[in-house]
Amino acid sequence: TNGGATWSATPAAGASVTVSAEGETLVRFRAVDGVGRTSGWVQGTARVDRTAPSTPAVSGGSLSWQNVASVTVTGSGSSDVPASDGVNHYEYRTSTNAGTTWSAPATGASVVISAEGSTLVQLRAVDGAGNASAWVPSVAGAGNTVMLDRGAPTNPTVSGATGAWSNAASAVVTASGSTDGGSAVSGYEYQTSFNGGAFSQSTPGSSVTVSAEGTTVVQFRSIDGAGNRSGWVQGTVKLDRTVPTSPAVAGGSTSWSAAASRTISASGATDALSGLARYEYRTSTTNGATWNATVAGASAVITAEGTTIVQFRSVDNAGNTSAWLPTTAGSSNTVKLDRTAPSLPTVTGGSLTCTNSRITIRASGSTDALSGLSTYEYRYSTNAGSTWSATVTSSSITIRTAGTYIVQFRAVDRVNNISAWAPATAGAANTACHT
Description:
The chain has strands at 23-29, 42-48, 57-59, 71-76, 87-95, 106-107, 110-113, 117-127, 145-148, 157-159, 162-166, 171-176, 185-194, 203-204, 207-210, 214-224, 233-239, 248-250, 256-257, 262-267, 276-284, 295-296, 299-302, 306-316, 334-337, 346-348, 354-355, 359-364, 373-381, 392-393, 396-399, 403-413, 431-434. It is an all-beta fold and 435 residues long.
């Protein structure tokens, strides 16, 4: 059992011998005849190995996801007794379902894993006698686990960036919803671009608060556990908290008018950010004590009689509004309309009795609630109303010439609205008989 250095005791008779000791055993035979003569020794070798080699050391894997093309897992370091027999080869097997099932064993001291997903690898050593070590590692670990993911996660959904102008203090833009079939989504990162400028460096995070006035483009992408990145998905935030400039208002007058209407207009407002959206106006018939509902429009057509004050303001696309202007009533925003005639005058001084004294007939008492009374006018007839004299501006007439006179008066307001002639028929009040 030591390579022929020493031999067992006196030869034993027998045509066969059973060798059970592990290791290499040399056996010699010789033939013996009937008179004791012997042949030369003839040698044979018996090799017995029932001991499995030691388990290999397995390396090359990782518990971290990787986006490389492949990873090589290797077995090494096994030994076998007797050394003369030694390790003949290694075998490996793989599992893609966490060890529930395994592939058929294949010969090799290393295996190249390129399939995406999580793959477990086990190796064993096999000696020259066919003894095999246990499969190792027995559980998943850093040495025998390969986690490959070369596919990008899905693009995120970006919310909070509507693209519409807003006058909010800030807007929170958020990324969510990305999925990944391999290493799973590990996070998000974003970049921002202000008013058309270059994008900032990438910053980790699934949300960003935008407060700068102007246009900010925010783009997000998702990152999986292997470092794969999705495409960028953009959203736009438009913030404008600055009011537009005040409008110029024109078209009014502090003078009374008998026109059917008057138009007051606004113009000239500007907005540097979101832009001017519209004008709005409101009206007051109480000298600003109360105001009617706000109406959208760059001009107001005023038809109501009386005094109307109009104010305008400008509104931008973010909903910011300027102050109401003008702040007080003036020639630009005041409308005074009067289309109503003054009340009929009261006529006195006439008589149905003839006299040779001069007779004065007067008009009085007319009122005008709007522009106010301006004057009276009269006419007279000496033929019982068949024809009339020219109209004369005056509140009285004195009759000095013989004849019978019928006199009519009318009231005129400050915008030349004229009442009817009164009295409508002849009577004691407006008749003069001079002899």
